Structure formats: structure tokens, C-alpha cells
Amino acid sequence: MKKYLFLILAAVLVLSACGGFQIGDSEGSNASEEDSASGETEGSDAEGSNGEKVTLDFWSFWGSEQRRPVIDKIIEDFNSSQDEIEVQHTYVPWGDIWTKNLAAIAAGDPPDVIINDINTVKLRAQEGQMEPITEFVDSDVENRFYDQMTEATMYEDEMYALPFNTDTQILFYNKDLFEEAGLDPEDPPSTWAELEEYAAQLDVEEGGSYERIGFYPLIGAGSDVWMMNALGENYISPEGDVKIDTEPVHDTFNWILEQKNKYGENTITSINSQFENAQQDPFMAGNIGMMVQNANYYVQLRDFGQDINFGVAPLPEKEEGNGHTSWGGGFVAEIPKGAKDPEASYKFIEFLTNHDSQLYWAENNFDLVAHQEAGNSAAESEEFSEAGREVYSLMVENMDNTLLTPQPLVAPDFASTVNPTFESIISESTTVEAGLEKAQSDLERIVENNR
Amino acid sequence: MYNSNRMKFWRAFNLVLLIVGSLFMIAPLFWMISIALKSMEEIYRGEFTFIPQDIQFSNFVEIFEIAPFFTYFINTSVITVLVVLANVFVNAFIAYGFAKINFKGREVLFIFVLSTMMLPGFITLIPQYVIFAELGLVNTYYPLVLPSFFGSAFNIFLLRQFFKGVPSSMIEAARMEGANHFQIFFKIALPMIKPALFTVAIFSFNGVWNDFLGPLLYLNDESLYTLQLGLQVFKEQSSTQWNYLMAGSLLVLMPVIILFFFFQKYFIQGSNILGQTDEK
Amino acid sequence: MYKKKENLYGYIFILPWIIGFLGLTLGPLLFSLVGSFTNYNVTSQMDFVGFANYKEMFMYDDLFWTSLYNTLYFVAFSVPLTTIAAILISTLMNQDIPGMRIFRTIYYLPAILSGVGVYLLWMQLLDPSTGLINQFLALFGIDGPNWLFDAEWAKPSLIMMKLWSAGGSMLLYLAAMQGVSKTLYEAAIMDGATRVQMFFRITLPMVTPIIFFDIVTSTIGSFQIFQEAYVMSADNAGAPENSLLFYNLYMWIKAFNVFDMGYAMAMSWILFIIVLILTIINFKFARRWVHYEGD
Predict the structure, then answer these.
(1) What ipTM, to 2 d.p.?
(2) What part of B 208-227 touches A (C-beta under 8 Å)?
(3) Which pTM does this prediction carry?
């Protein structure tokens, strides 16, 4: 018994020294006062109507050694640029940050600013999870972003967030392998037919199995990207028009299957799984000659690629004149419903998306930022290597062809309905014709129901 | 009686079985260690080698520069110690009631206890969060610790099974002699299920130490974060720092492994039914 | 008089649980029951819609049935297999040979290695080309399957992973085996019983309360398989071809991806009823085979 008593006593001692059991006010503002207590006298944080600072809680998932210092620097700049608002940054793990946010909104005690996914803004606006910001936004701010990004933040004529960064899918190819195969490393393929042709030259086949494959559409990109590339738009429009059972989509799947059957299921799975599991990188290892990837992939090549000699190009088009349509996502800064001072929050998100902050972010993280001018400046930035500038310029140019895919409100869960069907077409457990017909009618039914 | 040849065969067979089994069990751990010691360049290059070509012990040091893992360690320890203590004593108390006291409505209430396990946690997660928010306890350790003082179905059920093994005749006899149930609980029943108490302790240690969702939801202040939250900094939307993640995970695992290794002698004494001669 | 006192004692002993249940659990439980009859979306709406959620689920939602099938498949295989594996492992571990503590630690290791990190690790072990498992199979000339990338093999992959961590419940059985008196074994040996006989006649009956416990709790737990599927399916949504779309994963998608919390709550109550019925059946049958030493 004595032993346990001692244990409990020890625990109590540790507790008394530990902040986790102090009940503070749930606004979270007292913590910052403690942190910054060094320069402040007792009286300065007393309730005075003038000179009282607002403390804003800002949640992001940027906790890595690469991103954290960058966002912290921007926040520091904001805090010292004025003396009314103090922003306090909390890192919350990727993905789970939004579960936490939802619970906090439900309890009426959300953060003041959060970073969230751009393609779901409309849905969250509809569900009443965020504060509209239209009244604060002036046209200068509204026009600083790429049009499709601004559009993605609109719901029923109100703006709900400011875009922060985006990304776009481009073609990466291995120049050394090009040369080895007798291809011109400065002339990447620009149509699907050329892709196939180049791929055939890059393939290295030995005894019926492939040592290296030239190209396979579904490595690095999903079938949805190729559907968009073929259609020039998403296969479901915001209004709920479904374009799955159409010729371009049929062509897309037939084309993918053709490639798949050339290489064989096992070759494809083997390379694809390596990407999915992120255990190793077949492109860096030289096992694949060309692939479509999010342009940010450049950072991995730069940091871990050990001087791999690569080139980049826009996504090839289905046939000449069809358009190099690509796809992108991105993030916004937004104000959760029930935040204590939306106007102050807005001042901060405006600062996050201004030219200087965005340029600083771009130069240090290589993300394509939402601020067009800042993106243009970054494309010429001295901070990047020549290769870096080349990739960044392509990202900026590619935005002309890049679609965002805001979740259509008439079928928010369209993906879980049609993706399995697309997967079974690819695995050939159903035919292209039957699969696309099913996907088309499944999705139409959902749209019908939700209307 | 067994002849010695057969005995030898059994012992050898046994040992081979144990060793082969262990290899399967431990392989993932070696894999983790292997990744933890590699550089990211080597991981991406993808030439499969179990022993890294260029061993980076520095990974284990560098992770401390990225996140304050020592603080997280203290925080996690505080929560864990409290929850484990509460779990062992409170659940034993409740379980004794369900196992050894014949009160009205016992069976129905016990189904109620079990039913709390049957609804997925994330359905009740938001309303529960709202309760703690109303109590002003968000961003403290109370939501993580307090519930363990009210028992948990899994542990209550487990300890009930063990208390049921305590002979009722013994309890009856003690009652006749005038002992009340508290005395019986502390003096007779509790000591008899010591192995089970250690089991609960180890299970709950493991559970709390690795808990992710609780700390994620309830802690807003990074200085209060736990180890499992800290490990997440190595994972981002586009890339994962595999070597750091594995190095960090290994460090987080260590205390649990050590604890189990040393604690088991308090509650597991092997028996000799498979024919070993007594080595002691 | 005596009976009355027993009642009072009983309630005093379970009082902590009652307080916790009334204070922390019952509210959210009832809330989710009420919510299942509404279009609750967590933040802005909660209008009564009658049985609409339940009707949609049973009559129109194919994915609901898919997820239920996947879950039943998983439960049907993983519960018996892991239970048997745990008993066998514990029997092995319940010996007194030098180095046993190390073996026990190693066999318990998989239970300690839990959480997201382990699932990521398993994804790598199961990698069709570079994974340890297929490389091991290749040693014997076996061309291993594509595991998580093949709709046929995805669920067996998860079951295999569960089996690997069966050593977790070894603790329970070991604790129970401590209670088996050594004199029982000694007497059996005197009577010339074989090891197999001793296992079936002595060890097994003595640990039935724990087998029962293990079956009930792992059934409840397996019905709620979620994180494994969430992490290990390529799109976090049950890929390939919905083979990993388990009940709770689908519920999660409804609740937190499209904010149809009312629907998710309705789903959770259907699951609740299924599991409750199975548990009650388990308890009814238990009388026939579970042997409590103290009764």
C-alpha cells in the first residue's frame, strides 16, 4: 500500500508543476499573455477599452521543419506590423485538424483562422461552418488571385475564404533516359499519341518483364485527371450535369487499359504501390521514364533526387487542339463560424495572402501561391535554381489550363460512388461500356435525389 | 512418465517454434529500425537493403530539434500515470460489484455497461466534446483523465471475469464473520486477481500512451501536446519524413517495451506443463 | 434485510460507473439516437426527418450494404482466427524456460506497435514488389499476391495483420493461466495424461471465462474496424473497388466528409442493434461452455 501512496504522491507533485490541469478561460487568450509576459507589466493587460489587444488563434497543419519557420515568420511580421491584433499559431496534425475544427465549431469555441481545403469551401459554406467575408473584401484583394481559386470560395454570392496556395499536375520526364533512348531531351511529348510513342522507346523489357517502363497514365495521377484532360472540364458540373458516359471518357479508359495491357498488371501494380506506400520513388530510381505528378514534386527531386536530370512539360493533350487541361487543389485561409472577431481575423488572412507574405511563402516552400503577382515574381526569384525557376514558371503558366474541382453541392459524395466503378474498369472486372454506364446512372440518381 | 528422448524432442521442437515465431513478430521492428537509420535519399533511391548503406544515427538526435519531444514525453507520462492508476483501482472496484455482489438489476446493468462499447466513438465524439467545452475543460488534461475515474466497459468486463474465479464460498464465509464488502474487496479479492490487475495496467498504459484522438481534440496549446501528436509533424499532405517518423516512433515505443519486459515477472510465472525440468 | 444490504453494496460498488454513464455517456448516446431521425449536419441544421435516413439506408444505398458485407466478412474471419492464435501463443508462452521473458516481450511487441505508424509499416511490408512478405514468399518460388492493391486480397491482408498482433490478448490468457493450480497438472501427469489431453481437459476449461471475454470484446471491436482501413486503403475511402469500405469507414465519410451526421447516426444505431443482439446471444450461449471456478 505504501508503494502506491508514494506513486500517487509523486503524481500529484508532477501535476502541480504541470499546466495541463490549470483551468483557464476557453478563449485561449491567457496563454499568450503568459508567453509574452516578459515585457509587460501587471497593469497592461487589465481590462482597458483602449489599447486592448485581440489575440487570435490560428490553426494550421504546417508543423514540419520546412514549413513551420516560414509561417511563423509571416505571423511575426503581422504581429509587429500593427498593435491591435496578436496572432498565435497552433500546429494541428494534417487531416485531423478539420475533425478538431468541426468539434470546436459545434461547441461554439472555434479558432479564429484556420487553413482548409479549397475544393470543399462551398460545401462547408452551405453547412454553415464558416463566416462570410464579403463585407471586408475589396476588389484589390478579390482580384489578386487566380480566377478559378476565387470562384471556388464563393457560395450564393458571398465570399467565404481567401485562397492561399494551389498546385497543378504536370509531366515530369527523365532527360538522361531520353538521351539514352535516342529521344530529344528538350522535346517532351505533347499529345497522348506521342506519349505512347516515347514510352515505347523508353521501355526496357527483359525476358517478358519490364525493367523500366516509359510511361503509365495512372502513376502519379488518377483516372479523373485524364478524364478532365480529355473533357476539358470535370465529369460532373457544379450544377450536376454528368458527363461520364461520353466519348472522351470512353476513349480515356480504353487508352489507359491499352497501356495497362502492354505492361501487364503486375508491372503496373509493382511500380504504383511503391508510390502509394511512399517507400521508394521509381522515378528517382530511374524505373520510369515519364510521369504525371503534382508540380510540388520538384521539391522532393531537388532535396532527395541526387542530381537527377529531369525536365517538365504541361500535361499532354488527348489530340492536337484538345487542350492541355490539368487539375489542381489547394488551400484557403478561412474564419470558422462563431469566431470571436471576424474583422480582426480577416485582417490576418488578408495579410497572409498579400504579395509579400505570398512571395515569402513561395520562395521558401516552392508552393504555387494563390496571389498571381507573387507567383509571377517567384517564377523569377533569385532564391531558386535555374531548374526551380523553370518549374515554377511552368506552374504559373499551367494555371491557365488548370481546373479546380469544387465539390458539387448536388452530389458532395460523388467520389465514393463512382471511384470504385472506375477502379473496377481498370482492374477489368467490368467492361468500359458497362462501367461507365453504371457510373453515369449512379451519379445521376444521386444528383436527382439531392435536388 | 516421459522418457528422456521424447522429452528432448519436445524441447527442441518447442524452441524452434518459439524462435521461428519470434522472427515473424520482430521483423517489422527491424524494418522500422532500418528505415529509422536511413537517409531520405537512400529511402527514395529504393535499392532494397536491410542494413542502411549510410547509417544515420543523427536521425535520432535531429528529431528533437524539430519538435520538443522531451516536453511531450513529460506530458504523456503525467496523463498515463494518472489514467493507469485510476483504471486499475476504479475498474476493479466496479467489476467486483458486478461479479460478486448479487444486487437487483445486475444483469441488465451489465449489458448497459457493454453497450457503451458498441456505438462508434466518433458518433458521440462531438456531443462529448461539447460537454467538456461547457464545463470549460477544453485545453486541459481533465477530458483525457477524468473519464478513467468512472470506469471503462472493457476493463470492467475483463476484471469481472477474473473476480468470478474468486470462490463465492470464501466471500460468504467472510461475510458470516462480519466483514463488509469493502474489507473483502481489499483484503481477499483484490490480491487474488493480481495478474489481472497488471494486465489492465499494461493494457491501459499502452492505450493511453498511444492515444491520438483524445489529445488531438482536447488540447489546443502545443506546450500541452503528447508524443503521438508530436510524431505527426513528420507527416504532411504531400510527403512523409519516413526516417524521422520511424526514429520517433521507436523512441516512443521504448518505454512500453521496457515496462512490459520488467513488469511481467510480477504477474506471469510460467508453468511446466510442457515437460521442462525446473531450472530454478 | 441481508438482501437489501447486498443491493446497497452493489450500487455503491458500481456507483463510479453510474456517475460516469449519466454524466458523460448517456447524453451523447441519446443525442445520437435523436439525431438519427434528423438531417443534423453538426453546425447549422437539425430538422426532424422521420425515418428518412433509415429508409435511404435500407432501400437505396448500395454502399451501406457493401460496407455491411465487408464488415461481416472481416468479423467472421478475424475473430475466430485471432482467438485461436492467441490461445496457442499463450500456451507456448506459459512455460518456464530460460529467456522466456524475452520471447514474451517479442510476442507482445505487435500489440505495442499500434496506431497509424504500424499501418503505414504494414503497407510497406505488403508492398507487392518491395515488401518483405512477398520477398519472403519469393524465396520459396511463390509469386505473392498484390495484397492491398487487389480487391480480392485486401481484406485478407487486414486479417493477416490482425493475426500478427494476436499476441496482444496473450496477456489475458497468461493472466488467467496463472490461476490454474499446478497440482492439477501434477495429478494429471501421474495419471499418464498426454500434453494434448492436459491442454483440452485442464487448461482450456480454466480459461473459458477469458475466451468468452475475448470473443465478446473482439467481436464488438472488429465490427468497428476503422483506422486500419482508413489508413491502408489508397484513397482513404475503401479502395480498391470498395473492398475495404467497412461500416465505420463509410459512416466516417458520411459524417465528416459530407457532414451528413444524421445519416451517420442512423447507421451507428443499426450497428449498435446488430452488435447488441450478437452480444446477448453470446451471453446466452456462455452458460453452456463458460466455466467460472468461483461460482
Answers:
(1) 0.91
(2) 212-213, 216-217, 219-224
(3) 0.91
